[in-house]
Write a structure and sequence with these properties.
Domain HAT C-terminal dimerisation: 68-151
Strand content: under 5%
GO molecular function: protein dimerization activity
Distance between the termini: 152 Å
Number of helices: 9
Region (Disordered): 28-50
Protein name: Putative AC transposase
Helix content: 55-70%
Number of strands: 0
Amino acid sequence: MRPVTAPASQAAQALTSGFARFNALAKSLSDPDIGSPSPATPTVQSDEERAEAECRAVIEDERIIDDELTLYEAEGILDESNPEFKNLDLVHFWESHQYCLPYMFRVAFDVLPVQASAVPCERVFSSSEETDTIRRSSLSLKMIEMLQILKFIYRQDRIKFCGDLVATERELSVIDVDPEVIDSLLAAGKFEEVEALINSSWGESE
């Protein structure tokens, strides 16, 4: 009598089929001849080709700079005879030309901050050392810059308590007028005549 075998369920068949496909995929990926793209061979330039490429790049850079310089000269160069020269703001000028003259704009902003003398620069560094102390080590760069600018402004406009106490040369000059005449005029309320006498004594016309 032949034994009877129960048919496999659909889930078991799907599991077996999927496992077989995974095995086939793993074999295909492990094969070095399949799926591995061949590396591109780099193009090796000779010394002559490299020198020629560098020469073309230098010529192109010189052409760009020459065109920009020509555009700058075409706008006209201001000199001291031009009335706009006195009110010229270099920072504002180059900021307004940074897109049409990009390379000259970069050069200008590298040159403009350069100090003509080292003394003001040294003073700024010495002053910043007093600002950025150990107890203020957490200050940001922007805050230090703001404090330095404020210190410079206040030092330029500092209060001079003795400024009005210093006599001028005009005030120290001798008034060649009889004191009794001045007293009599002041008593009579003739202040304009007193001022006229003092101005004439100082050699000033009314």
